[in-house]
TrEMBL record:
<keyword id="KW-0963">Cytoplasm</keyword>
<keyword id="KW-0456">Lyase</keyword>
<dbReference type="GO" id="GO:0042866">
    <property type="term" value="P:pyruvate biosynthetic process"/>
</dbReference>
<dbReference type="InterPro" id="IPR028978">
    <property type="entry name" value="Chorismate_lyase_/UTRA_dom_sf"/>
</dbReference>
<feature type="binding site">
    <location>
        <position position="78"/>
    </location>
    <ligand>
        <name>substrate</name>
    </ligand>
</feature>
<dbReference type="GO" id="GO:0005829">
    <property type="term" value="C:cytosol"/>
</dbReference>
<feature type="binding site">
    <location>
        <position position="116"/>
    </location>
    <ligand>
        <name>substrate</name>
    </ligand>
</feature>
<dbReference type="GO" id="GO:0008813">
    <property type="term" value="F:chorismate lyase activity"/>
</dbReference>
<dbReference type="GO" id="GO:0006744">
    <property type="term" value="P:ubiquinone biosynthetic process"/>
</dbReference>
<feature type="binding site">
    <location>
        <position position="178"/>
    </location>
    <ligand>
        <name>substrate</name>
    </ligand>
</feature>
<dbReference type="Pfam" id="PF04345">
    <property type="entry name" value="Chor_lyase"/>
</dbReference>
<protein>
    <recommendedName>
        <fullName>Probable chorismate pyruvate-lyase</fullName>
        <ecNumber>4.1.3.40</ecNumber>
    </recommendedName>
</protein>
<dbReference type="InterPro" id="IPR007440">
    <property type="entry name" value="Chorismate--pyruvate_lyase"/>
</dbReference>
<comment type="pathway">
    <text>Cofactor biosynthesis; ubiquinone biosynthesis.</text>
</comment>
<keyword id="KW-0831">Ubiquinone biosynthesis</keyword>
<keyword id="KW-0670">Pyruvate</keyword>
<comment type="similarity">
    <text>Belongs to the UbiC family.</text>
</comment>
Length: 190
């Protein structure tokens, strides 16, 4: 019998106790279930600036492919920096499968410089009361996602905390990964 070596993911479900591995200062940000965009905008007292780094069709990294059970290999990837006064607070990577951006979602997902979170929380209000699946990870130079972000943002710290959430927009999946940058800690989470 041949056994395949299963690749371990660096991601841990928030409800599995993985949150306690994160430094206490990041735990409220990593576990928050509301709109991150709205929370940060309340904390800074202004709208976030969105700097679009990449918005195109491309292949998923191996961990992302596994997340979708290898059913999706290529889709729209949107990478942005969310900034306050030109200072990056969050780096986000959204995976939007083709099926998720078709039909009535097509117009909604014409984002431009609008944060995806504003669309998700304004349009869906999470049709069900069920919390979307959320995972957290400590990413470092060995992580494919860290490497992707570093290509776009060379000032990325060598180890960072991130969360990823599977949202649904009109029943269609969108995977959003958010990397928390050190400047975010200047603002308390209310």
């Amino acid at each position: 019998m041949v056994h395949r070596r299963r690749l371990r993911s660096v991601w841990n479900r928030v409800d599995s106790g993985g949150l306690h591995q994160a430094p206490r200062k990041w735990q409220p940000w990593l576990s928050d279930t509301g709109s991150l965009t709205q929370k940060i905008e309340r904390a800074i007292g202004q709208k976030l600036e969105v700097l679009v780094l990449r918005d195109c069709r491309q292949d998923l990294n191996s961990d992302e492919s596994r997340y979708f059970h290898f059913k999706i290999t290529r889709c729209r990837i949107r990478e942005v920096l969310l900034c306050a006064n030109g200072i990056p607070l969050i780096m986000a990577r959204s995976i939007i499968p083709s099926s998720s951006s078709s039909g009535s979602n097509h117009e909604v997902l014409r984002l431009g410089k609008k944060p995806l979170g504003a669309v998700l929380f304004a349009k869906t209000r999470m049709h069900s009361q069920k919390k979307p699946p959320r995972e957290i990870a400590r990413l470092d130079k060995h992580s494919p996602l860290w490497k992707k972000f570093f290509e776009q943002y060379p000032a990325l710290p060598s180890a960072i905390w991130a969360r990823r959430t599977l949202y649904r927009l009109k029943g269609r999946p969108l995977l959003v990964s958010e990397v928390f940058l050190p400047a975010l800690l200047k603002y308390p989470l209310d």
